Amino acid sequence: MPEPQRFEGTVAMVTGRYPGLSQTFIDREVRALREMGVDLITVTVRSPDPQALSGPFQHEEAGRVFRLLASAKRPAHVIKALTQALRHPRRLAATARLAIHTCPAGARAMALQLAYFAEAMLLAPHLRAKNVKHLHNHLGDSSGTVTMLAAELTSIPFSMTLHGPEIFQSAPRWRLDAKIARAHFVACISEFGRQQAMRFSDEAHWHKLKVVRCGVNPGLYTAKPAAERTGRDLLFVGRLEERKGVNFLLDAMALLKARGSDVRLKIVGNGPQREALQRQTAALSLQAVVTFAGTKDEAGVAEALRQADLLVVPSLSEGLPVVIMEALASGVPVVASAVDGIPELVREGETGRLVPPADPQALADGIEQLLVDPSLRQRLGEAGRQLVATEHDAHRNTVELLVFIAPHERSGDDSLNWAPDIQ
């Protein structure tokens, strides 16, 4: 990968709600780009939730991120947005056509598309004022639509990072085909994600799909000496929702308990399933060995991993979980469902164990195999640390992203030539 050239102008990072506890992967990218000398601003469609902020960086970023919907409450900004749009009628008309041609069927979809069009108009003056030369969107969903429309309105090139699995499950709704066709490039966080993006795009645009993996700062994570590990501490980190499969993990805990294991489980995270999972814990008589620890910031997760013997990821679907990278960086092997992009991180017999999803028996067997074999856990942990150092270093992977973000000037006339393959 060649060294990136110095980028002249500003890059705007756009997402739906930022910053927040579940957006630490964006934090790392933002920090790394700024450390490389990139003039980078952040844009959030919805204002961040003060209760979901963690750590000094997120609190600082919440104070300077441009809040798109909040800007609609400032009459002066609205007037400026309308005035600027009307000064460029051809671009405005082209953007309106693009909004129409990428609108899914249905009255509600049409109303939402109109809102995204209005949001793009509100974003444009801010981009011009900040001398933005490139737009980059995370996730590709509604905020991706706003980014695409704002790019058309301002003639600024855009790119996006696709994470999954939600974006691929709703690809027609979010017109992923059109976004890929119009994007300067598309970063996919895994080979699995790239293959999914190929399913929903024309072959003529596959060359734009680049694998740019998420990463962590390996220096923040320390491996606990093997002699200090108890061989009984399991950790789950994630949002407590159905697709995370925590209910299957609790069933596996019950099986392990029935086998006479004294294994313990700490659950870090919160979400809509918390109360149901606590009831399940009580029904299985696991209260003495299962702890619901609530949400933790990056430092809190790092400390929880330092105390853990295994990370368990029983998900039904995933993109490429950053917590697995954090575990491997901590020398903690992983037992995980063999779904989506997970096998690119959890390599069977090399950095952990892969088991079928929604199978408590297989999950319990995988956990037990590693817990009873300290030398195997140590070998897997060391291999995991090496994998993260070589493939998931946040700074190194952000360099790859910056290589693709290059000046891509377009004339005013070019901005009217919206992609002909949009139907």
UniProtKB/TrEMBL annotation:
Residues 227-386 form the Glycosyl transferase family domain. Pfam families: Glycos_transf_1. InterPro entries: Glyco_trans_1 (IPR001296), Glycosyltransferase_grp1 (IPR050194). It comes from the Bacteria. This is Glycosyltransferase involved in cell wall biosynthesis. It comes from Hydrogenophaga palleronii.
